[in-house]
Amino acid sequence: MFSPLALLLSSLAALAGTLTVDVLDVGQGDAILLRSPAGKTVLIDAGTGKRDVVPMLRARGLEKLDLAIATHAHADHIGGMDEVLAAVPPRVYVDQGMPHTTATYNKVMDLVESSGAGYKPGTRGVVFNLDDGIQLELLGPMEPRLRGTRSDLNSNSVVVRVTKGERCMLFTGDAEEPTEQMLIQKGLEPCDVLKVAHHGSGHSSTQRFLDAVQPEVAIISCGKDNKYKHPYPETLERLARVGAKVYRTDLQGTVRVTTDGKSLDVTVLGPEQDAGGNASAAPDVPQPASDESAPAVAAGTRLDLNSATAAQLDALPGIGPSKATAIIRWRESHGPFTSIEQLDDVPGIGPATLAGLRDRVSLSPEGGSR
Q1: Mean pLDDT score of the chain, rounded to an integer?
Q2: Are 304 and 295 in contact (CB under 8 A)?
């Protein structure tokens, strides 16, 4: 009989292959799809429902899921889960095991029962083994559950560590500072990729936590111009401090991570939906994050902030693709920079990044003097 705790999803030995993880462009919410080399599928969260996740899964050829994980019961994480349960039913459904009073939560749980999915409340220590040596380990929530926090639902988010070979990825839901403290106390190990908690909120991603994880790549799932002002500048500064390269769904759309257990690659796929709210017909076609054909800046030459391309800005220390895009958007909205200090007004750029750029950038005459 099938055991949801073991989740031995294939009796055949899969050849060494690629684990693919898509952090989907769902606006102000989370939805993450994992696909193993043997085609096993795991969905972590399902967005708000305002951007239907189902067409995104259909566009990837999915008719069912092997595992669905709801990190916690807030609507920006389970708002689209009812549609997923009805259209792309999972074999096993996992959540944080904390009932909520909302109609959204009740509808989802009714559908879990009627869909026939095996239900498993998530807790630390549960392990799901996929093919090709891929392991999903739940690091949280813990027993007993955290109580009396700023948000008990957030603080008891299902935290998932996914490992394949030498590489790992950490998915944190909306975990907040109390969760991060508990994870560190339990012996949190470094991880290559971090799905940043709570859309980059200031209530998460403490410096101590980031110092423990030491992510090479940090992915923030949030909505463009969202009312919560996510991600917070201080969160971006802390990520920069640990040297993480930041990707954001609000600026770049869906972000894909692939690994064979040794190498690790990140690709920007672009928006999943067009302006009319329709799912993209070809979400798997990578969209360039910047003008890769732009000429490089000669060594020793200062880069002109008012004419630099995204590719040239991306190459600056501490910038990367998301901050390069933010600089260009600021320039388009406010006109040419008139002082280098104005970089501090660009989302994601703070005093530390600014200090590292002073000797690397200049301003064109129309922008003012250096």
Answers
A1: 86
A2: no
Instruction: Tell me how far apart the alpha carbons of residues 319 and 343 are, in angstroms, rounded to a whole number.
Output: 11
Chain-centre distance for alpha carbon 352: 24
In SS3 terms, 330-345 reads as HHHHHCCCCCHHHHHH
pLDDT at 95 over 60: yes
What is residue 135's three-state secondary structure?
Answer: strand
At 25, give phi and psi (nearest 5°). -80, 90
pLDDT in tens, 143-156: 999 999 999 999 99
Helix (H, G, I), strand (E, B) or coil at 136: strand
Whether the pLDDT of residue 212 is over 60: the answer is yes
Closest CA to 279 of 26, 43, 22, 90: 26
- Among 215, 212, 209, 218, which residue's Cα sits nearest to residue 178? 209
For the chain, how many helices (H) and strands (E)?
Answer: 12, 17
pLDDT at 184 over 70: yes
Pairing between β-strand 245-248 and β-strand 254-259 as defined by DSSP bridges: unpaired
Q: Are 165 and 159 in contact (CB under 8 A)?
A: no
Is the Cβ–Cβ distance between 131 and 19 less than 8 Å?
Answer: no
pLDDT at 53: 96
Read off the tokens for 350. 């703070």
pLDDT at 253: 96
Domains and CATH numbers, the chain: 19-270 (3.60.15.10), 303-367 (1.10.150.280)
Gap between the Cα atoms of 347 and 11, Å rounded: 49
